[in-house]
Amino acid sequence: MTASELMKEIESNLKQLAEETDDFKKSEFFKAYLETMSKFWQYSYHNQLLIHYQNKEAVKVAGYRKWQELNRQVKQGSKAIKILAPSIRKVTEIDPETLQPVEKEQTLFFPVNVFDISQTDGEELPDINLSIAGDNYKHFIETLVEFCKSKQINVDFKNL
After folding, report:
1. Secondary structure, 3-state, 126-157
2. Are the C-beta atoms of 84 and 51 separated by less than 8 Å?
3. What is the pLDDT of residues 31-72, one digit of tens each?
4. What is the largest CA-CA distance in the chain?
5. Distance between CA 93 and CA 107 in Å, rounded?
6. What is the pLDDT of residues 79-128, one digit of tens each?
7. Cα–Cα distance between 13 and 6 in angstroms, integer?
8. Across the strands, what pairs with 106?
9. Is the pTM of this model over 0.70?
10. DSSP notation for 65-118
11. Are 82 and 113 in contact (CB under 8 A)?
12. DSSP summary character for residue 119
């Protein structure tokens, strides 16, 4: 195969890949996937996928105890959505160079059950109705942070 033929084959494969990518972006599956990701941004990518594949209609998920804290009860017979939760433990290893014990952290993952709000009954969740217009965002942020504190929700700010 000549260099020219190889380049033509590569270009052809790239065009095919671009077409398949464009088709995928337009697919209903991809739209549903992005919708799921937008709802569960606080979860890891892998847990987002697990939620999406197990319950495409999920909008708000939490563990059994969290729903109880929110005065909601998981309906009897509801099938849990399985995700993975990290667990960090300390392990002691022997450094091969110094032969001294070294303490390291090891992250393990174990399955946990979460349920969508549609699988629960109970009190309505609080609705935050705040809007930003002009330069009132400082009051908005203060109000939002106070609300989160009152509900024991952690708030973290990052420069993006």
Report:
1. CCCCCCCCCCCHHHHHHHHHHHHHHCCCCCCC
2. no
3. 766 665 665 557 788 888 888 889 988 888 999 998 998 889
4. 71
5. 15
6. 999 999 999 999 999 989 988 999 999 999 999 999 999 999 998 876 65
7. 11
8. 89
9. no
10. HHHHHTTEEEPTTPPPEEEEEEEEEEEEEE-TTT--EEEEEEEEEEEEEEEEGG
11. yes
12. G
The residue with tokens 């270009």 is 11
Residue with tokens 């939002």: 144
Question: How many Å apart are CA 84 and CA 47, to the nearest integer?
Answer: 7
**Cα(87)–Cα(83) distance, integer angstroms:** 13
Torsion of CA 72, 45, 18, 56, to 10 degrees: -20
Place of tokens 């070294």: 102
CA distances, 103 to each of 37, 91, 93, 94 (Å): 36, 6, 6, 9
CA distances (Å), origin 124, targets 42, 72, 75, 77, 140 = 22, 8, 15, 21, 23
Nearest Cα neighbor of 55 from 83, 86, 85 is 83
Q: What is the dihedral of CA 2, 7, 10, 12, to 10 degrees?
A: -110
